[in-house]
Amino acid sequence: MDAADDEGGETLCDGRQRHRILMVSDFFYPNFGGVENHIYYLSQCLLQRGHKVVVLTHAYGNRSGVRWMTNGLKVYYIPRLPFYCQSTFPTIYSTLPIVRVILIRERISVIHGHQAFSCLAHEAMLHGRTLGYKVAFTDHSLFGFADGASIHMNKVLKFVLADVHHAICVSHTSKENTALRSGLPPHRISVIPNAVDTAVFRPDVSKRQPGRVTIIVLSRLVYRKGIDLLVEVIPAICKRHPEVHFVIGGDGPKRVSLEEMRERCGLQERVEMLGEVPHADARAVLTRGHIFLNSSLTEAFCIAILEAASCGLLTVSTRVGGVPEVLPPDMIVLAEPRASELVEAVSCAITLLPTIDPAAMHKRVREMYSWHDVAARTERVYSLIVGADPGGDLLLNRLARYYACGPWAGKLFCAVALLDYVLCKLLDWWAPAESIDLAPDFPVDAYLKHQKGKG
Q1: Cα dihedral 363/367/368/374 (nearest 10)
Q2: What phi and psi values does residue 409 have, to the nearest 5 degrees?
Q3: Is the confidence at residue 175, as pLDDT, over 50?
Q4: Which of 59, 204, 292, 357 is deepest in the core (most CB within 10 A)?
């Protein structure tokens, strides 16, 4: 089957090309995290720019089937259960029938996969390329090159990205990492950073407790987030600065280590453990603090730093990955990922607090980061790949790219792609595209006009 009808030929009133985008990832609401927020806010801004956006993810508990979100964002929660860390089990071909139906029903023109950990995104991009669709991919994480898990993941990424039209990374460090891991030419990778909804994350100094310096930690409590460093840093900071109190939000396997440290050092009155914090409550926690502490061991961008800065907090962070690119030097204190270095950085930040103006910091973040800017730049990527030479979509050209992935892996990738092609042909015969009902589009323009009228 060829790609769905050329809906990419639609134009908006200002002459821009209208795209029909399928966002695919295992990570979406009701789960919370940077990838989930990125997909949601990007989708909302693309809807406001006149495009059609549909999200494909797996079922979360009893949330399955088709759901509608704000401004007509349609979400397919397909019946696949998470296997590890919210990622589905990699079956490769079992998702083909449902992905094909969604692509045809929604008349999709561009598939946009998110996150290298997402098996669903990789499978949807593979099927989309076999069906003739244009495909983009956003990498939100950094990977190493030496451990077994990274070697395996990098090979999978090399296979998938060999056939995507364009990749997006959230920082220049992430772009370099992705190019090295996947072998993708740098000119086919764009850097489009994350952003923050500054209308939500506003300062409120009235929430701060007088005579106390409150340090906020909002993070998943896992090894990658440097929680073992926090276990060493918190007692040292509390000993050096008696006015300091910690508020820690988040959950994960390393929570036990923090609670044991608190009991061992007698810091129950100075270290408050909130447990998991819904994203809707993040601002209420951040506005209680003066300093935001990020102890990550690896980070492609860290959107939590932006949210904290938008709330007027001075940030202390480890100098890892793309973190140094997020904020200018006068808004963040960086340290090497060592306990002694972090202790000194926090002490330095405490001395700088009298010079920090939360309202001015919020204004600077608002001027630097905008989801509307992210959406406009992503839209240009879509227009670029929709206008790409269709010769690259031919099966033989695709197989040549897979074959170049390695002497053994290349042959395996070709076999996977050929079987996918055969299965697609069988589905074309078994359930022709003409027999699949098309879904009506949500009347976004009328809805937005109605919402403005209510306002």
Answers
A1: 130
A2: -60, -35
A3: yes
A4: 292
